[in-house]
Each structure stands twice: as C-alpha cells, then as structure tokens.
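Subject: design request, 449 residues
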C-alpha cells in the first residue's frame, strides 16, 4: 500500500526546523507522499524510518537481474498493466529448453540449432537469449552436469530447472559465474534451494502445485530474507498458467501486493509439449500477458520472425518515436559519386527502405533527414519533410561538399515535392521513387542500368 502523508509524518523527526525547505515536518511528509521530494532531503529521519519508507515506496514489481557481463538482462520492474497506460520497461526474454532425458543426437541437434536464429531488426538483435536446462533424475546427474556445461558453451543465460538441492548445487558450481537462474524451489524444498541459490548469488524460481501454494512458498522465502525470486507459472494447464501470470501481476500492480511482485517464467515447452504451432501461439500470448521469461522447445526462423516482431512492438515505448540517426548511410560499397536516395528518420521506414536498397545491390548514399522520427507522409503533413526542410538539412550536413553525385531519389509518396525541391536544390536532378519499398529493387536496377 502506498503511504499517506500522515503515515510518513508519524515517522518524521517532528523538529519543524525547515532545513528540508518545507515549513513543517507535516508539509514535508505530504510532499514525500506525493513523490515530489525524496525523504533524503531531511537529514534527521532515522535509518530505521528511511528503511521503512523505502520499502513502502518501492515500485510494486521487483526488478531482477540475471546473467553477467554483456549477457546481463533485466526482468520485471513494470509499473502498469497495459502498455497504453505508460510503457512496459523490460521485454520478455525467450528461452529454448534442453533436458538430460533427451538422447544425445537430439541434444546435439538442438545445441546446433539454437545459434542459427540471430539477426537484427530495427536496431535490435534478435536471438535466443536464454537456455533452459531441465534435470530429470532418471537420466542421471552426470549427464545433467555434462549438459549444463555444453549449454554454457552457447554463451546464453542459463536457467537450471532442478528441484534437487544437491544436484542444483553441483550444477551451479559449474556455471554460477554466468549468473544463471535456478528454477526449482517448491513447498517441500524451498529452504535448501534458497540456501543454494543465495550461496551462489543467483535468482531462484519458485513453483507451486497451485496459485495458493505458490503464493505461500514465495511468502515463506521472503521471510527467509530471499527476495531475488522468479514466479514459475506452472505446467498444470494453459488456463492455470495464464491465471497465475495475470493474477499475480494484477495483485502486484493494482493491489501493491509485493509477494506477487516478481518477474515470471512460463514453461510453454511443457504446456504444449510437441506442438510447435500451439507453443508459438502461447509465446505470443505470454509476451503480451505477462511472461518475463517464456520457454519453448525450439526457435527456428518460423517462430522467431513473428515472435520477435511482436515483442518489439509490445515493448517499444509508445511515447518515444523510433528514430535512427540523421546523416549519410553509404550502401553496397557506395562512394561520393554514387546516386543519392533520401527519406525520413523513422526507424521502421529506414530499416524497410535500406533493406530493399541493399537487396538491389546498387551502390548508393542513403541520406536520412531529421524528420522528428515520423513516417514519410506524417512528417510531410507536419512540415518536417518538406522541400525547405530537406534543402536546409542538405546545407547543415554539407551534403554537396561530401558527395559529388547530383541525382537525388525522393520517396514516391511525396512526389509533390519534386518541383519545389528542384528550385531549392539547384543543379540536382530529382527522381521520384515508387510508392512501395518492395518496388525499389527493380527500380534501382533499372535506373542505374
Ligand atoms: S528537515 Fe526534517 S525535521 Fe526539519 S522540518 Fe524538514 S522534515 Fe522536519
């Protein structure tokens, strides 16, 4: 529950000395309650009172870090239930699962398959960021430890799925430097698992037979002082996993129930075992609501292209335009004599257009204008991509000093700019591109043939 001014006043020093800039401790307490000022502005609050206040004013959902070095990633920390309310801050991470119960050929095939999906879209690297390594007691500890070592070789953040504290301890000894997740605390082993995870300094995943047992186990771990946790939504059924994901997130954000305020892990590989299509559908569901890590059996390009595209859309801040840096981008080995193409700095436009231009194989200089991160027609309508703004940009960037070509291709959707642009950029031949990016390959080849 958020603290009210009166609650904070009760903890205040009541000196009314004005050193904090407020006339009284009561006025100061009201400002702290509104979030207008930090409690640290008063030098007289006791450490105890500050600790109580920090606990009460902390975000409803914990931010948890996993992985180390360049592979470190942040989970949770969300403050809203819906993206349109503000923004989601830490994207869902995708993991592919391995198990020591798999035969050697299947393990090798999967280890070889995981690195194959690796590409960039709108400035973001798309790849399998995590690997879930499940322990099956029947398949033996040695094979598991061997598999953990092999999986570590992929250079991804590991999730060790193991409910045996002794085996978990041995596995963590091998890979704890990479700050993996240990997923496997439950009602019967949580004390031992917490000790193992805490000793290795890793995040602990908590499981439960149902939502109530899960909640109670998380609460018991918190009592032990372990708040470095993940909530496992379980493998009983899709319905139950979805209910846990939604109810826990809702309880954390709307009701400020901190016991529910941990990032989640969803085992889609178990909820729809052997059904790649259903798994892909479930990953999309849990990307939107509310999986922090979603585990699936495979990630080929067939799964990756729609899922990473969806994730990028969901976890983009709707309040910030997606922009690329304005300037000259030489493509296909262009030099100063290569033909020029210009468009706006909206990231999606840039990546779609530059992709097609690259496919054409024609050397060219792509000149990206500063159009406020808006699309071609929107920026044109807003006056940010006009003949005047393009000419001004050319002058500011000294395009004529840097490039010798005087042929400039403009987007087909703003063909109307041709005449005015020819007047503002004397000596330039203005050429109108097709309206659709997909037509650029043929157009570029034809025009430079
Ligand atoms: S500095 Fe602290 S003690 Fe002094 S008025 Fe402000 S809140 Fe009260």
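Subject: RE: design request

Done. Sequence follows.
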């Amino acid at each position: 529950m958020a603290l009210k001014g009166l609650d904070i006043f009760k903890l205040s020093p009541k000196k009314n000395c004005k050193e904090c800039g407020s006339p009284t401790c009561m006025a100061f307490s009201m400002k702290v309650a509104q979030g207008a000022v930090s409690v640290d502005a008063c030098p007289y609050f006791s450490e105890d009172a500050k600790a109580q206040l920090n606990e009460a004013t902390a975000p409803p959902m914990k931010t948890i870090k996993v992985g180390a070095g360049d592979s470190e990633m942040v989970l949770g920390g969300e403050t809203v239930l819906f993206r349109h309310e503000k923004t989601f801050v830490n994207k869902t991470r995708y993991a592919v699962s391995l198990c020591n119960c798999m035969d050697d050929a299947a393990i090798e095939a999967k280890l070889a398959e995981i690195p194959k999906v690796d590409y960039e879209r709108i400035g973001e690297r798309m790849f399998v960021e995590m690997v879930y390594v499940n322990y099956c007691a029947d398949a033996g500890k040695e094979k598991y430890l061997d598999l953990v070592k092999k999986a570590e070789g992929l250079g991804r953040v590991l999730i060790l799925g193991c409910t045996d504290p002794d085996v978990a301890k041995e596995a963590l000894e091998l890979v704890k430097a990479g700050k993996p997740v240990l997923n496997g605390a439950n009602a019967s082993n949580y004390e031992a698992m917490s000790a193992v995870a805490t000793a290795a300094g890793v995040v602990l995943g908590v499981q439960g037979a149902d939502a109530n047992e899960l909640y109670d186990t998380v609460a018991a771990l918190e009592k032990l002082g372990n708040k470095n946790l993940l909530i496992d939504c379980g493998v009983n059924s899709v319905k139950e996993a979805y209910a846990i994901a939604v109810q826990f997130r809702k309880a954390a954000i709307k009701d400020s129930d901190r016991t529910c305020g941990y990032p989640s892990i969803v085992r889609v590989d178990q909820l729809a075992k052997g059904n790649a299509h259903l798994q892909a559908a479930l990953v999309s569901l849990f990307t939107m609501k509310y999986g922090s890590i979603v585990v699936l059996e495979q990630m080929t390009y067939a799964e990756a292209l729609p899922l990473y595209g969806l994730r990028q859309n969901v976890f983009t801040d709707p309040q910030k335009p997606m922009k690329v840096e304005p300037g000259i981008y030489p493509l296909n080995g262009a030099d100063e004599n290569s033909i020029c193409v210009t468009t706006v700095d909206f990231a999606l436009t840039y990546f779609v257009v530059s992709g097609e231009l690259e496919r054409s194989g024609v050397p060219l200089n792509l000149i990206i204008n500063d159009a406020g991160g808006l699309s071609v027609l929107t920026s044109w309508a807003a006056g940010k991509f006009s003949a005047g703004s393009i000419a001004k940009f050319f002058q500011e960037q000294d395009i004529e000093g840097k490039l010798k070509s005087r042929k400039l291709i403009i987007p087909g959707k703003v063909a109307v700019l041709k005449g005015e642009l020819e007047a503002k950029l004397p000596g330039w031949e203005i050429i109108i591109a097709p309206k659709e990016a997909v037509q650029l390959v043929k157009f570029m080849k034809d025009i430079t043939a």
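The pocket of iron/sulfur cluster is lined by residues 12-13, 15-20, 22, 25, 28, 42, 44 (CB under 6 Å).
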